[in-house]
Structure formats: C-alpha cells, structure tokens
Amino acid sequence: AQKITQTQPGMFVQEKEAVTLDCTYDTSDQSYGLFWYKQPSSGEMIFLIYQGSYDEQNATEGRYSLNFQKARKSANLVISASQLGDSAMYFCAMRVHAGGTSYGKLTFGQGTILTVHP
Amino acid sequence: GAVVSQHPSWVICKSGTSVKIECRSLDFQATTMFWYRQFPKQSLMLMATSNEGSKATYEQGVEKDKFLINHASLTLSTLTVTSAHPEDSSFYICSAQAGKDYEQYFGPGTRLTVT
Fold first, then answer.
1. By the 8 A CB rule, do A93 and B102 touch?
2. CA of A99, closest CA in chain B: separation in Å?
C-alpha cells in the first residue's frame, strides 16, 4: 500500500519569499510518479508538477520545483517568489506504475493550506 | 487540451431524492475515470474507478448501491447519488485518464448540498 504524508496543516509566507511544502511517501514499488496539485477556494485541482521515480533531475515548472530525495522518500515542493494568488491548499500525491499502461490509483496526502501575506 | 467538465457545478436537493452528476472528457477519450469525494479542508477520497463498458470498482466502505456509477462511453461517466441524505453533502470531483497517460485530468467539481 502507498502512503503520502504532509505534516504541515498550514503554512504562512511573505509575498516574494520562497516557501517549501513538505511531502514524504512510502511505497515498496520501484516505479512510481509523484505529483503536486494546487486547489484554490474554487475547488478545481490544478496540476503543478510531476516527478518520476527514475528521473535523475529534480522537476521544475516555472516558479515550482520539486526537491526529490529518493533515499529519504521525500518530494518537497518549493515555490519561489510567492504571489498572493498562490494562497490555496496544496496536495502531494503518488501513483504507482504497475507495468505497461497500468497505473495504480492516485493516493493523496492530507494537504497543506498555504497563505501568502502581502 | 485534456479538459474535463462536470455538470452541474453545484446542486441543492431535498433529502430522499436522487442526484446525477456528469463527468465529460471534452477533447480526449478517457479509458478510465475516477470519482472522488472531498469534505471541507480535507483530502480527496477515492470513491470508485470506472472503465468504459465495465462495472465500476468501488473503494472499501463506499456503498455501491448508493453511489451508482456508469461509464457508458469513452467521454462520459455519471455518478448518481441515490436517496441522498444531508451527510452526503460534499464536493464531488471526477478525473479522467487518457490511455497510456499517467496523469489524471480533473474536472472542476460539483458541490452537493442535501437539505
């Protein structure tokens, strides 16, 4: 079974500062993918970034980067130069690659509410 | 590309009635669709996985007779909440997977309030 843990229920950051949202995972599978989603108050799930377990480089997408430490089973999200619009709930998630085109279900962490102060 | 829509975006119904929520993949064929439920400030809980043309696979603890899922085509899945009660009030989100793609594309969600 897979498990995702986000230990920060809430985080605060000053506008223009960087912030790191923590995520640790547990799986015995070797092939898996890690995702980060943003959920603003409207409720839509916005895909931010993806990291494959075999990717050697940390994923980056604009102001988002994923600090992937495989040995520690952590996949922290770093948001640089925070903006007021970054205030939202953030979810870390994992999906196991079962082989071929078969994927396991997406397992979500508890989420972290990020508040960006002006 | 990869747009998923849900209808309605919000619905209020009386206790005892049934409500149908539609999930459509607009620009791709979804071999698999997923239904999630989310309570305020909580995580998404997977309710069921549906593959086109076959019966849905429900997660443990989800009543299949209460939450009817139909995946009749490669672009449409429906969730029917039967005999809804106030405790069924929640935010329901669907997602769709396109073939070999590892990513799930999420719909905007449906807020259900049962009075």
1. no
2. 11
